[in-house]
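Worked example 3. Consider a protein that binds V47.
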Amino acid sequence: MDAHLQAIEMKIRDGARLTKEDGLALFANQDLAWLGSLADFARKRVSGDYVYFNVNRHINLTNICTARCKFCAFGCDADSRQAYAMTKERVLEIARVATEDPELKELHIVSGLHPQWPFEYYVDIIAMLKEALPHIHLKAFTAVEICYFAKISGKSIPEVLTTLKTAGVNSMPGGGAEILSDRVRTELCPNKATAAEWLNATYHAHRLGIRSNASMLYGHIETMEERIDHLLSLRALQDETGGFQTFICFPFHSKNTELAYMPRTSLWDDLKTIAISRLLLDNFKNIKAYWVMLTVPVAQLALGFGANDIDGTVSEEKIMHAAGAKSEKALQQSTIIDVIRQIGRIPAQRDSMYNILKVL
Ligand code: V47
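Given these inputs, the predicted complex is written out as structure tokens:
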């Protein structure tokens, strides 16, 4: 093995930090079994043998979106035949039905950037849900949505976040990060928060005590260097705030998007990306294998390549399925538990803040 890779292995065994050059060397190397064993070693050291999952429900308030990112099959214009926008009553009805399941602990709320709804509409929905279902954790609005709310309301980012926190937002999902590069964003998603704006909104959320997730959308027009830079930007922010709970990578699914000609990432790339994320993000405790995008068998494999979290039951996922994700629409808890036990790890049902509720 070449000397640089040997040095990287030594650093990982010693718990030392990897550099950008190390990340690039890991992507260039094709010894997947070696990489996987290092990522598995790092995972075990940071988070032991538990594999976390939660019981949650996704609610996408609207698919009408002013951003119209090239990679997205979910967003549409207001006059599209698929367009929908939920009333407050409809949101409450969905939430009430979902929470009839006593195991359900979280509502995950992410939506399009609606051209007409005022900021107050979103605040009212959160306040309504919190009043009706005070025991449910509301993981709501990506940093992109926070930036949009600031734009439409004329409020500052901290004001928007404080208003939402007061209304009942408990934490934020990690979407909208895509690739934190101006080149990529100008090409794929010029009508929404820039890389600096995404990082800034996330920084303020963490400062105000709103923890959030981080994500990466890969396998489109980005270079390996841009993937590494993305991971290092997240690592730097985590050093500063400690506010990230978990990292998720989304392999790009091109069906029904403007980039429909692009092939799906290889399984090899998916496993390398998860493993390298675990190794570079040394200050993240949790790396999520998002079965919705990966499919259940690949998510199970990813648990041997650095991941320690398999998200949750995720009923009614729409964004990824619009782009052709072939996975189930939701998973039973018993399936998640089997998937974890089959690889000799311990299923741990968690809440949204990663407190263990039950070890199964
Ligand atoms: O930002 C959109 C991704 C994200 C496609 O924090 C796509 O726990 C692949 O925020 N192919 C939104 N990916 C979803 C999101 C999320 C989902 C699950 C868990 C969490 C969490 C957050 O979905 C977007 C984008 O990066 N996405 N379209 C696509 N065609």
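Take a moment to read the result before moving on. The first helix runs from residue 3 to 14. The mean pLDDT is 96.
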